[in-house]
Design brief:
alpha+beta; Cytochrome p450; three-stranded antiparallel β-sheet; disordered C terminus
């Protein structure tokens, strides 16, 4: 996960790299087979209640492409890099966002994550410059400063040996970074409200069950979700109103969106701005915070890898704050993050719906079928990963990609709709990890249950409760850099 132009590692980084548009090939179903899968109109119902375990079970029983049904909803699980590549890249024009994105749109509206077609393409082209490599490099200082401020706030916990949940800490940190980098404002004051309402919305998506088809029912869960969505939109509309009153160009993403004009000269409405800003705030901090939280857990369980990480950050940084120029030398740090995202991908599955008939891996895909492309399964596929359940960052060493298909690892999706913020997230995660690892070891509290909870993102169900263990630099005595002198 280093800042590089290696498309094998991180996919497409700009619109100029998008695949050329080609006509969707005609499929002759006579040459294709019906996908295998369990029988019955509710054969996929466990997806709504215990998705990870169910996906593992059906893939073991039926293979890498499995047909499922939930009443009249046709679902096809795809758990092989060849199938993923076909849907996301080779024949992407035949696929649009699946029904679950319509559920997500109840919160995010028509922002970049949920929009389609010409609307999406226009949004992508408008927003892309804020995530180009040079712009992301400018954000490196913000990322390091915010992490250092967080470490200052941890001093009391460290001195008392107090336990705390690292997940909300990572959420507050990444939210602060997104606010300063993209909106030129500190969202610390709004962090608790955003976090609380986002958790309500996220958990509602995760427990939607059959109510996904009946959001209008006045159930307690639906009512809580509506209130949470209203609160989040109110926060964002307040930010937009304040910026309109100021009338100042900050050179950030929000200023860019406020200045945007369509062919008729009209600017974006407050509702359009709200959808884009809300999408980027929530998507821009939730996934990175989740990835970092799982990284701390995995390091605490693997002392050998943790020691290698500490040795690298001590040798490269020597106690000082990291900068963008250090990232190429923090190779093992990048490997640790990649391996954490392999085992616990922040986005554990991607949905697509077939616009027309297609054939994937020799099986027929009928128009209207919803495809579930699962990082959780592909990232642990034994055909592409040796000891797939073991935390082994070395598997991401330089040259390791050549031994695997491109889509054996796709934490940010792929094809034209590759996550626009992938480079931002990778850079932030590497800087945060290197900064914190110089100062502390994070130790998971003995007996605390750690279990993945597949909501929109793959959160730890009970959080990750840790204590802090101050550390000294390997190969030397206590830290002596001025950055740490006040600690």
């Amino acid at each position: 996960m280093k800042v590089s132009t290696d498309s094998q590692s991180h996919g497409i980084h700009s619109l100029s790299e998008l695949p050329s548009r080609r006509a969707t090939p005609k499929i002759r179903f006579s040459a294709a087979r019906e996908a295998p899968g369990p029988r019955g109109i509710m054969s996929g119902s466990s997806l709504m209640y215990d998705p990870l375990r169910f996906l593992e079970k059906v893939s073991r029983a039926y293979g890498d492409l499995v047909r499922l049904n939930i009443m009249n909803l046709r679902i096809c699980l795809v758990a092989h890099p060849d199938g993923i590549k076909h849907v996301l890249q080779d024949n992407h024009r035949n696929y649009q966002k699946s029904f679950d994105y319509k559920i997500l749109a109840r919160l995010l509206g028509q922002g970049l994550v949920t929009s389609e077609g010409a609307l999406w393409l226009g949004q992508r082209r408008l927003i892309q410059p804020m995530f180009h490599r040079q712009k992301v490099a400018e954000f490196g200082t913000i990322m390091a400063e915010c992490t250092t401020a967080m470490l200052d706030s941890w001093r009391g916990w460290a001195e008392r040996g107090a336990a705390f949940d690292v997940m909300p800490e990572m959420m507050r940190l990444t939210l602060r970074v997104v606010g300063r980098a993209l909106l030129s404002m500190d969202l610390t004051a709004q962090a608790d409200a955003i976090g609380r309402n986002m958790t309500i919305a996220n958990e509602r998506f995760g427990s939607m069950g059959m109510l996904a088809f009946a959001p209008w029912l006045p159930t307690p869960g639906n009512l809580r979700f509506r209130i949470a969505a209203r609160n989040l939109r109110k926060i964002v509309l307040g930010i937009i109103a304040q910026r309109r009153r100021e009338g100042r160009d900050y050179g950030d993403l929000l200023s860019m969106l406020l200045e945007a004009r369509d062919e008729s000269g009209e600017g974006m409405s407050d509702e359009q701005l709200r959808d884009e800003v809300l999408t980027l705030i929530l998507a821009g901090h939730e996934t990175t915070a989740t990835a970092l939280s799982w990284t701390w857990y995995l390091l605490s369980q693997n002392p050998e890898a943790e020691h290698k990480l500490h040795r690298e950050v001590d040798e490269v940084l020597g106690g000082r704050e990291p900068s963008i120029s250090d990232l190429p030398n923090l190779k093992y740090t990048a490997m640790v993050i990649d391996e954490a995202m392999r085992l616990y991908p922040p986005v554990w599955a991607i949905g697509r719906a077939a616009v027309g008939h297609d054939e994937v891996m020799g099986y027929r895909i009928r128009k209207g079928t919803n495809l579930l492309l699962s990082q959780w399964l592909v990232h642990r596929h034994p055909s592409f990963w040796d000891e797939p359940d073991r935390f082994k960052p070395e598997r991401f060493a330089e040259g390791g990609d050549s031994k695997r298909p491109r889509y054996a690892f796709f934490p940010f999706g792929g094809g034209p709709r590759l996550c626009i913020g992938n480079l931002f997230a990778l850079t932030e995660a590497q800087i945060v990890l290197a900064t914190v690892a110089q100062k502390y070891r994070l130790r998971v509290v003995a007996g605390h249950p750690v279990e993945p909870q597949p909501l929109v993102t793959l959160r730890p169900r009970y959080g990750i409760k840790v204590t802090l263990e101050p550390r000294t630099r390997i190969g030397g005595s206590h830290f002596n850099a001025s950055w740490y002198s006040r600690h």
